[in-house]
Amino acid sequence: QVQLVESGGGLVQAGGSLRLSCAPSGRTFKTYAMGWFRQAPGLEREFVAAISWTSDSTYYADVVKGRFTISRDGAKNTVYLQMNSLKSDDTGVYYCAARGIAPSTTYYYTSEYAYEYWGLGTQVTVSS
């Protein structure tokens, strides 16, 4: 069982930046595809960004493309979401997700149903 822990959320003014981190407890992320999702109040959870385990492939939701960057640090066993030029619409709870994959697989996944493990989320609030 993989437990994921997100951190780095907080309150920021529109136009500001935050960097979210996600680290597992007890296991490494070496052969896990990773993703970030978010959920705003009253809305369904939505895809934000995904990265393959090799970091060769990344994919972003159109609404964050050019502003957010997903990356992973194998040495620190951590996945990051750098969020720049934040808007009030970016407010929500951000979740980290992981899916164990075979080493020969370099896919990323955009559907929440593809992921096996989830963190409890970290709140991001962008004030206008």
In words, what does this structure look like?
The chain is an all-beta fold. The protein is 0% helix and 49% strand. It contains no helices and eleven strands. Strands 2, 4, 5, 6, 9, 10 and 11 form a seven-stranded mixed sheet that branches. A four-stranded antiparallel sheet has the order 1-3-8-7, with no helix packed on it. The relative contact order is 0.32. The model has no long low-confidence stretch (mean pLDDT 92).
Average pLDDT: 92
- Global structural class: mainly beta
Gross geometry: globular
**What radius of gyration results from the CA coordinates?**
14 Å
Biggest sheet character:
7 strands, mixed
Q: Could you spell the SSE succession in H and E letters?
A: EEEEEEEEEEE
**DSSP summary, beta strand count:** 11
Distance between the termini: 39 Å
Low-confidence stretches: none
DSSP summary: helix tally = 0
Strand content: over 45%
Q: Helix share of residues? A: under 10%
Please supply descriptive tags for the structure shown above.
about 130 residues; mainly beta; 7-stranded mixed sheet; about 0% helix
